[in-house]
Amino acid sequence: MTFTERFVALGDSFTEGVGDEDLLLPNGVRGWADRVAEQLMLADTNWGYANLAVRGKKIGQVLAEQLDAALALQPTLVSLYAGGNDILRPKVDIDELMAAYDDGVARLAASGARVLLFTGFDSAKSAVFGRTRGRTAIYNEWVREIADRHGTLLLDYWRLREFQDRRYWAEDRLHMSTAGHTLMAKRVLEVLQAEDVIAMPQLPALATLSRRAAFAADAQWVRRHLAPWVGRRLRGQSSGDSLTAKYPQLTGLHPVS
């Protein structure tokens, strides 16, 4: 099938859809980008969609492994978010990192596609990931400058204060939950000035934990999520090492209820 409008999504776990589980879908996840594509297709069946994002990828890997593949699909709309996995490393040269990012965005913009970029999330409330907040702030200023330079669209995730509600986050505290991905899809469609008929899931009551219960929940999180995450990094492994892109070629999607 020939698509006259082509949305190609690039990046890491954020765009792959980790945290929004659906075992019937490729890689077992859905995510905001799938939801955006579904809405675009509801409005216009000429849209095709590819998602090249793979969890665990750093900026260099995203640019090396996904950029040429994306351009080969001749996108009319392309989204790019990468850098979170670099920021979480013990050492990172953000200025050097963003020079490569700038070059990649320049190539995407030169293709004639509309380009959508994202700033990073404000992790101020996270006891663990909040330690990298300063790095993310510097990264964000680079993203804003690059978006201005190349005339791209920008979704300023840092300023979306509703995501400070922990109910929009998955159990691992690193990725958005189904509700979070759903809300993100709506915010992306707003930036694209596209209508949607997405129904937000009802959030559960916000639980207030006792100190003992909070300590137990933190201990469980360390065992289930933080310790394995640290272990993979010490071994030089990534959760995406055995995975490939969900939708490497343009496809049509139907909304999943």
Offer a quick outline of the entry.
Residues 9-182 form the SGNH hydrolase-type esterase domain. GO terms for molecular function: hydrolase activity. The chain has 257 residues and is α/β, with parallel strands linked by helices.
Protein traits:
SGNH_hydro, six-stranded mixed β-sheet, 6 strands, Rossmann fold, alpha/beta, hydrolase, 8 helices, hydrolase activity, 257 residues
How would you describe the overall organization of this protein?
The chain has a single domain, classed as Rossmann fold (3-Layer(aba) Sandwich), CATH 3.40.50.1110. The mean pLDDT is 90. The chain has 257 residues and is α/β, with parallel strands linked by helices. It is globular, with a radius of gyration of 18 Å. 42% of the residues lie in helices and 12% in strands. Helix 6 links the parallel strand 4 (114-118) and strand 5. Strands 5-4-3-1-2-6 form a six-stranded mixed sheet, with helices on both faces. Residues 9-182 form the SGNH hydrolase-type esterase domain. This is SGNH/GDSL hydrolase family protein. Keywords: Hydrolase. InterPro entries: GDSL_Rv0518-like (IPR053140), SGNH_hydro (IPR013830), SGNH_hydro_sf (IPR036514).
